[in-house]
């Protein structure tokens, strides 16, 4: 099976600065990115007007923290929790939504957050971040640090700081792995759950397309999006191997002790996630890297027959199959947290 082979993820790692690409390419990326932002905004607005989300998926409350007043945090309490609940503090899950660092808001994950809170009994906090191209790397990373470290406005949330988990989808999963490396937050999270993450900006989109182990399937959801994501998120001169940008290069000791990586079979981001989790678990030489595993707190699942975004219905294919796969994975993630002592 073809694999991407990033450089040895141990210091010293030679930097790989981003070069300034030709003007026509930059114009192409500019137009594609802004067109995508416009179309996604229009589609989301019209969809919500015609098909309002059910009340059962709405957050318990929303807050805006003084440190990031333009960003809304959406809070989901488990349905059996009351202010006088004798259990007191709750294990807490921080959710970071996807969207190529460019589109959507924390509202995108409302359905997931409400279901995850019910499934696990966790307090779920869905955070937003500022978007590209106006706010490139590392703005979104520090937006999350600013919200996490900010004093809580009333009402105080029942956060159990000894049982914190962070997770995200696609770009949000990249940010989850970046945030946990920051000195102010390092080792504060017991676990990270990453769904089809972007973990390596050191390879170009064509390199990733050519490395795919499949050819005769639908085109990837991402396709040319890789170019405008790279243009908008990564400034010329930025080291592409910076672990905050490309978590593939992060040292294991700078990440949570428990990491669960989920990838879609038909996704050009699959191989980088697959290689990263095998490296963390010390299984680089494993022959069958598609097969799931769990070792020393590291867990890997490949969602067979699925494409990027399968958890949110963005991929084509039978809806019943996507729902079946994602709900089985969410149950596996819950049980994995239980085995790690994060959940009771």
From TrEMBL:
Entries under InterPro entries matching the protein: AB_hydrolase_3, AB_hydrolase_fold, GDXG_lipolytic_enzyme
Origin superkingdom: Eukaryota
Keyword annotations of the record: Hydrolase
One annotated GO molecular function: hydrolase activity
Signal peptide, first to last residue: none
Tagged with keyword Iron: no
Residue ranges of domain Alpha/beta hydrolase fold-3 in the record: 95-281
PANTHER family named in the record: AB HYDROLASE SUPERFAMILY PROTEIN C4A8.06C, ALPHA_BETA HYDROLASE FOLD-3 DOMAIN-CONTAINING PROTEIN-RELATED
Record's protein name: Alpha/beta-hydrolase
Lineage, highest ranks first: Eukaryota, Fungi, Dikarya, Ascomycota, Pezizomycotina
């Amino acid at each position: 099976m073809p694999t991407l082979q990033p450089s040895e993820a141990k210091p010293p790692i030679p930097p790989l600065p981003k070069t300034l690409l030709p003007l026509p390419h930059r114009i192409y990326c500019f137009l594609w990115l802004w067109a995508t932002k416009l179309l996604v905004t229009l589609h989301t607005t019209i969809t919500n007007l015609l098909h309002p989300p059910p009340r059962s998926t709405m957050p318990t409350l929303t807050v805006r923290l003084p440190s990031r007043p333009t960003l809304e945090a959406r809070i989901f309490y488990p349905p059996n929790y009351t202010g006088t609940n004798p259990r007191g503090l709750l294990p807490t899950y921080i959710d970071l939504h996807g969207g190529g660092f460019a589109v959507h808001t924390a509202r995108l994950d409302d359905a997931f957050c409400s279901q995850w809170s019910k499934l696990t009994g966790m307090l779920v906090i869905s955070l937003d971040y500022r978007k590209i191209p106006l706010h490139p790397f590392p703005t979104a990373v520090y937006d999350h640090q600013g919200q996490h470290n900010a004093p809580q406005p009333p009402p105080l949330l029942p956060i159990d700081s000894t049982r914190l988990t962070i997770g995200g989808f696609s770009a949000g999963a990249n940010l989850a792995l970046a945030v946990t490396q920051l000195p102010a937050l390092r080792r504060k999270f017991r676990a990270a759950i990453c769904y089809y993450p972007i973990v390596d900006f050191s390879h170009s989109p064509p390199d990733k397309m050519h490395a795919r182990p499949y050819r005769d399937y639908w085109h990837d959801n991402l396709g040319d999006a890789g170019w405008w994501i790279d243009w908008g998120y990564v400034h010329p001169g930025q080291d592409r191997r910076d672990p905050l940008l490309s978590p593939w290069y992060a040292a294991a000791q700078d990440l949570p002790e428990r990491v669960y990586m989920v990838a879609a079979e038909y996704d050009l981001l699959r191989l980088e996630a697959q290689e990263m989790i095998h490296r963390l678990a010390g299984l680089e030489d494993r022959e069958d890297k598609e097969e799931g595993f769990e070792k020393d707190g590291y867990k890997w699942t490949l969602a067979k027959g699925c494409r990027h975004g399968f958890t949110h219905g963005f991929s084509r294919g039978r809806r019943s199959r996507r729902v079946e796969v994602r709900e089985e994975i969410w149950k596996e993630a819950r049980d994995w947290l239980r085995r790690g002592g994060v959940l009771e």
